[in-house]
Design goal:
CATH class of the largest domain: Alpha Beta
Bound molecules: adenosine-5'-diphosphate
Oligomer: single chain
Helix content: 25-40%
Mean pLDDT: 96
Strand content: 15-25%
Radius of gyration: 23 Å
Low-confidence stretches: none
Number of strands: 20
Largest sheet: 9 strands, mixed
Number of helices: 17
CATH superfamily of the largest domain: Glycogen Phosphorylase B
């Protein structure tokens, strides 16, 4: 197949979150499976050095943006066999220090920036020397692509449009007057169109006008049709349920594999778990926790420190977790209030809570390898990556059963010796602590603990599977 993927970030070029990993890995995997892939990205300032080798394909991509006609250029880079990246250049809009904003403030013209990008992608397709079968757009920044395609080229060209929601909490909401930038007839601004409580909602363009709609896990695809998780779009999503599918993201096992990980002290697999204990001792040392307590369980956490991830529940539960005999290794950054709360707890329990506030790739790997358990008490979790990494590292996940966490973590059953972790339903410190207690109890029963670890390490959430699921959605008629 010939596939176009559109998104606002992509590894290895530019990343602020999981979206970049998904676009990078999916593009690579589809090409590896024998398909021809072109991925579109805006040419941000941060990319300019990295793409010096890119070829200019056209410097006259012209699109309407409200009353203006704006011109952009496209540059193409061959990344691998059958895999190209096309950068959309428009310096007035994208030659800036940030991606979406600076100093915690979004750029005020983000609607203009991503409407231009989306329209420019559609306008560029005829210049690609390539007749695509599929146009796959991701998140609100690219959500306008299926709609614009359907207006501009659709009648002449059969092509399937797919739109993926990575996090419904980000919808691309803008004041009503920005609707002019869409250059759509006024009747598109209504409840059945792009209006959302008087504002312009760009995500709705992707939901309404794509042939196939996906969310990044089966559970999340179901949850977003409910009031609790639907962020106001649950009714619309329910009406689209016939075309809505869940496709779990994959884990990048080239970067996250204890057998080859270059950040950890000793490499290991499920036959050499003694080396995992070496990693644990190294982690305790790094976090200035007493190494002589290496016999006791360590619970790891690597996360944005925000309420979505349940960090407030963890902060509340630290004294009990310590009382239950476990230590904690926490890495993250985010909400200053929660960060302060955790810092205070680390001062109160200096030998039991190892904390690093900040972003630290190496330590993230060291926690995955050195901890015994990994805690993810998320309020919502579209897919989640860390639980998949933890499984591969034999670091038993303790998760709230929501979204992708529910799809990947199966509670351990001592009777059948099946399951790869521990989970809980209610979002309270008490239910979380009960799951932690179950995990600690199992940890004390060596035979069961080894079984959970083996079950966890045998799980396979590779990208190949996810790419194959997307392919079957691309191919279905
Ligand atoms: P989300 O995208 O919602 O933040 P995910 O679990 O999908 O959550 O992905 C988070 C990714 O970011 C993981 O790869 C995780 O290891 C990494 N990460 C999060 N916080 C940090 C941090 N402080 N330092 C290093 N890596 C981090």
């Amino acid at each position: 197949m010939r596939i176009i993927i559109v998104g606002s970030e992509m590894t290895p070029f530019v990343k602020t979150g999981g979206l970049a990993d998904v676009i990078g890995a999916l593009s690579r995997e589809l090409a590896a499976l024998g398909h021809e892939v072109v991925t579109f990205l805006p040419l941000y300032r941060a990319l300019k050095d990295k793409v010096a080798a890119a070829q200019c394909v056209s410097n006259n991509i012209r699109v309407p943006l409200g009353g203006r006609s704006m011109v952009g250029a496209i540059y193409e880079l061959q990344l691998a066999e059958r895999q190209r990246v096309v950068f959309v250049r428009q310096d007035e809009l994208f030659d800036r220090a940030g991606l979406y904003g600076e100093a915690d403030r979004d750029y005020v013209d983000n609607a203009a920036r991503y409407l231009f990008f989306s329209k420019a992608v559609v306008a560029s397709i005829p210049a690609l020397r390539f007749v695509p079968d599929v146009l796959h757009a991701h998140d609100w920044q690219a959500a306008f692509v299926p709609l614009w395609w359907s207006r501009m080229l659709a009648p002449a060209w059969r092509l399937r449009t797919v739109f993926t929601i990575h996090n419904l909490a980000y919808q691309g909401l803008f004041p009503r007057d920005q609707f002019d930038l869409t250059n759509l007839p006024a009747d598109y601004f209504g409840v059945k169109g792009l209006e959302f409580y008087g504002q312009l909602n760009l995500l709705k363009a992707g939901i309404l006008y794509s042939d196939v709609l996906t969310a990044v896990s089966q559970h999340y695809a179901e949850e977003i049709q409910t009031k609790e998780y639907g962020c106001g779009l649950e009714g619309l999503l329910r009406s689209c349920h016939g075309k809505l599918h869940g496709v779990l993201n994959g884990a990048d096992y080239t970067a996250w594999n204890p057998r080859t990980d270059r950040y950890i002290t000793a490499n290991y697999d499920n036959h050499s778990l003694a080396n995992k204990v070496t990693c644990k001792r190294a982690l305790l040392e790094t976090l200035k926790l007493p190494v002589e307590r290496a016999w006791a369980p360590v619970i790891g956490m690597v996360s944005r420190i925000v309420e979505q991830k349940g960090c407030d529940l963890v902060a509340e539960a630290v004294p009990q977790i310590v009382m239950m005999g476990a230590s904690l290794a926490i890495l993250g950054a985010g909400d200053p209030k929660l960060e302060r709360q955790l810092r205070k707890l680390a001062e109160r329990y200096p030998t039991r809570l190892g904390l690093k506030i900040g972003f630290d790739e190496a330590l993230a790997h060291q926690i995955e390898a050195g901890a015994d358990m990994f805690l993810m008490p998320s309020r919502f979790e579209p897919c989640g990556l860390n639980q998949m990494y933890s499984l591969r590292y034999g670091t038993v996940p303790i998760v709230r059963a929501t979204g992708g966490l529910a799809d990947t973590v199966e509670p351990y059953n001592p009777g059948t010796q099946t399951g790869n972790g521990f989970s809980f339903d209610d979002c309270t410190p008490e239910t979380m602590l009960a799951a932690v207690a179950r995990a600690l109890e199992t940890y004390r029963q060596r035979q069961h603990w080894v079984r959970v670890i083996q079950n966890a390490m045998a799980c396979d959430f590779s990208w190949r599977k996810s790419a194959q699921q997307y392919l079957s959605l691309y191919q279905a008629t």
